Amino acid sequence: MGIVGVSADEDASHSAPEPKGLDARRTRILDAFEICIQRAGFHRTTMQDVAKEAGMSAGNLYRYFRSKEALVSGVIGRDRERFSADFREVAQSEDVMGSFIALGRRHFTETPRARCIQFMEIWAEASRNPIVADMCSAVDREINDYMIAIIDAAKASGQIPASVDSVATITVLSAMGDGFFTRRALEPDFDVWEGFRLLVNVMDALLSGKVELDRPLSDTTNSLGAAPASEGKSDVRS
How many C-beta neighbours within 10 Å does residue 19 have? Predict the structure, then answer.
């Protein structure tokens, strides 16, 4: 499903000015919705629950959001604003891969476990609700495009080999990122730092060309356990 943006309270340096008026009320409602689904799950959460958590009447809540799908749209929309700025900054950095790893470190190690549970609740709803599925698919495509642009920028700057398949690499990394958040949601004692270390090592192998993503499945199954053909290629972190 892709990576969801880091929330503002996880990094003070990326926090926006305190919203006022209408924006402040919408923010309060979206915060309340996130708390509710983290606590009780998407399906058990009602609009009345969200209104109570936000400190307003249900009738007032409906003035801003007509349904839980509208609330999901609001949550995804504000996450999209946060991560788009981060990804653009990485792609324009002089040290693209260093900035990419730093962003990943903040994202994977500092995101609270409750947010990981929230992601899973929304992903699960997407599996049976076409409206939520369309919203998640749209943001996934946007995230993938940003990350492919980052890999392309790293290739253009000479930090990784030009032969690296950007699309295939991001397909693998996105799946691993989703698994990382799933493990965090399911395992309260999941070691985020060890998990992130392993994730970076796999990314290094992919971007150094040590993993050949263009091999057909038959060739891959016939050579499982064999020594890497590209042994000795440069490390992307060097």
Answer: 12
Residue with tokens 């050949």: 212
pLDDT at residue 10 above 50?
Answer: no
Output the pLDDT for position 63. Answer: 94
The alpha-carbon radius of gyration of the chain (Å, integer) is 20
| C-alpha–C-alpha distance, residues 204 and 94, integer Å | 19
> Strands (DSSP E) along 25-151, which ranges?
none
Tell which phi-psi region holds residue 17, choosing left (phi > 0), alpha (psi between -120 and 50) or beta: beta
User: Which of helix, strand or coil describes residue 101?
Assistant: helix
The closest of 33, 26, 31 to 47, measured between CA atoms, is: 33
State the greatest distance between any 2 C-alpha atoms of the chain, in Å, as a whole number.
65
Phi, psi of 220 (to 5 degrees): -65, -45
Which distant-in-sequence residues (6+ apart) come within 8 Å of 108 by Cβ? 177, 180, 192, 195, 196, 199
CA distances from 30 to 26, 70, 122, 186 (A): 6, 10, 14, 24
- Tokens in use for 164? 């690296």
Q: Indicate the pTM of the whole model.
A: 0.77
| % residues pLDDT > 90 (the chain) | 69
First to last CA, the chain: 31
Residue (of 91, 105, 98, 116) closest to 180 by Cα position: 116
